[in-house]
Design a protein that fits this description.
Elements (H helix, E strand, L loop, with lengths): L1 H13 L5 E4 L1 H6 L11 E4 L1 H9 L6 H18 L11 E2 L11 E4 L17 H15 L5 E4 L3 H9 L3 E3 L17 E3 L4 H5 L4 E5 L2 E7 L11 E4 L7 E8 L3 E6 L18 H11 L5 E6 L5 H15 L5 E6 L15 H5 L4 H10 L10 H4 L3 H12 L1 E3 L13 E6 L6 H8 L7 E6 L15 H9 L5 E6 L6 H9 L1
Parallel strand pairs: 1-2, 1-5, 2-4, 5-6, 7-10, 13-17, 13-18, 14-15, 14-16, 16-17
Antiparallel strand pairs: 3-4, 8-9, 9-12, 10-11, 11-12
Helix pairs in contact: 3-5, 8-9, 9-11, 14-15
């Protein structure tokens, strides 16, 4: 006993200063590459985590795919390990991670006695992983041991037992979504005083260009929309076409608030909608992201722009619309019919907006019901629906869309990996539009900071062929706008 005590007392002096992270199963299920996300710190994988991975590897769900990928990564790391070395000393992650991580991977190589209170059932996997973490705290008293889990209740239990526990943060693009790129910037009142020296201006077709120099140029991003409204002066609405540390080129926008520039009979009702239509109608922009709460006009503007460019200008051959099928309430079960028939119940927003777009210009809201049976209107609706295809996300892998107008609705429920799968389907001449509200995420394990929509907004900002707008004001009805504010 004395010898063991002496060894334990000497252990902290030789222990490494980096942290030891104990991984819960749901972390690997959520992000298999989490094995390489802890930089210089070591990670410990309990035996129960491996058991749970084995139990969840079957199926075609995203979780099952991630589970199999995590198991393959662990297998590659262990297979490349030198058999002459002792696995208890840990496996270096430097080579398997291609120098992304410099820590070591430790696997549970011994049976660990239960160290949790008797009130907690030992047969539960979560409690066994907590027990392993508590044992490591006793074994390495001078070293930070932290349990990493996506399970809130597990973290609460761990902290109640005096164990450090935290969420897996590496998948989050931003810690605070208030810092998310909005795509717009209000110019200060003294903008022209500070940036007007050596100003160059020229006209090209119907657009005016300004080349400016000044301190703000280093902060501007390509395709960022800038605006300035002041009393007595004509408002400026433009977007950044070129930008470097010293100069920037601004191009004035098409005014889609005017009836002469109406898109399929729709005009912009506010500044952000005008910015959005400029992105949606520009052939040089291949990727558009629209954020905004319910009623800001995301779907209506996108469909109007799509129909105009498919049926009028023939820029695209057809509209393809898809969305994540995550129910808000209880699932109603399997749906009959073909792929498109199964997707129709999820596409109520499409039908609602098509009713608005197919309403004759002279028709008021009060006469909508009386003229809805008109033959011409019905024929137009059939023509429109023939050029809109509704597809399921489940069958997107391996496809290539040529000259299509691809709309991804409710994109906030996609993971970054799913978003990459969809966007890489785009072939030559295809435009991709992602819409969503990051405040309405229905997918488990996704948050505003880790949503695929947040991910692409942050990654695509500043690319010359992509644009983003956060729509601020609701235009659905006074009831909907008031409900969005107070509820």
């Amino acid at each position: 006993m004395t010898t063991k005590k002496t060894a334990a007392s000497k252990a902290p002096a030789s222990q490494p200063k980096n942290k030891l992270f104990v991984l819960d199963t749901n972390v690997l299920m959520h992000d298999p590459l989490s094995l390489f996300r802890f930089e210089e710190h070591d990670i410990f994988v309990p035996m129960m985590t491996l058991e749970e991975l084995d139990a969840n590897k079957k199926g075609m769900t995203e979780v099952a795919r991630n589970t199999r990928q995590a198991s393959r990564l662990l297998d590659e790391i262990i297979c490349d390990y030198d058999d002459n070395q002792d696995i208890r000393t840990g496996i270096s992650l430097a080579a398997p991670s291609r120098q992304l991580a410099s820590g070591r991977l430790f696997l549970q190589t011994e049976a660990i006695n239960n160290t949790i209170p008797h009130a907690l059932p030992t047969g539960k996997a979560d409690n066994q992983i907590i027990s392993v973490a508590l044992h490591l705290c006793e074994k390495f008293p001078g070293r930070p041991v932290i349990l990493v889990s996506k399970d809130i209740n597990m973290r609460i239990k761990a902290r109640a037992l005096g164990l450090a526990a935290q969420d897996y943060f590496n998948d989050k693009v931003l810690e605070d979504t208030d810092l998310l790129y909005t795509g717009t910037r209000e110019l200060p009142a003294d903008f022209w005083d500070k940036h007007g020296k050596g100003l160059e201006s020229w006209k090209q077709e119907t657009h005016t260009f300004y080349r400016i120099k000044g301190p703000l140029c280093k902060d501007l991003l390509i395709n960022e929309h800038v605006w300035q409204e002041s009393e007595g002066n004509q408002p400026l609405y433009a977007w950044v076409r070129e930008a470097d540390l010293k100069t920037a080129v601004l191009e004035t926008l098409v005014d889609y608030t005017h009836q002469k520039n109406a898109v399929w009979g729709i005009t912009a009702r506010n500044r952000e909608q005008n910015f959005a239509l400029n992105l949606l109608m520009n052939p040089d922009i291949d990727f558009v992201t629209l954020l905004g709460q319910a009623g800001t006009g995301k779907t209506l503007l996108t469909l109007a722009a799509g129909l105009t460019q498919v049926l009028d200008s023939k820029r695209y051959s057809e509209i393809i619309m898809t969305r994540v099928t995550v129910p808000v309430g209880e699932d109603i079960g399997f749906l009959p019919g073909t792929e498109e028939e199964k997707m129709n119940p999820w596409m109520g927003a499409l039908d609602d907006n098509l009713d608005v777009l197919n309403r004759p210009p002279e028709e008021s809201a009060s006469t909508l019901t009386t003229s809805s049976g008109d033959w011409g209107r019905a024929a137009t609706m059939d023509l429109i629906r023939s050029r809109i295809k509704v597809k399921s996300l489940n069958f997107m892998r391996g496809r290539t869309f040529m000259s299509k107008f691809l709309i991804i609705d409710e994109a906030q429920n996609l993971t970054p990996k799913q978003m990459k799968t969809l966007i890489t389907r785009a072939g030559p001449g295809t435009k991709v539009v992602c819409m969503g509200n990051i405040a309405q995420i229905d997918t488990p394990y996704l948050t505003e900071g880790s949503s695929g929509l947040t991910y692409v907004v942050d990654r695509f900002k500043g690319w010359p062929h992509a644009g983003h707008i956060t729509l601020q004001r609701g235009e659905r009805s006074r009831l909907a706008d008031h409900a969005a504010e107070i509820l």
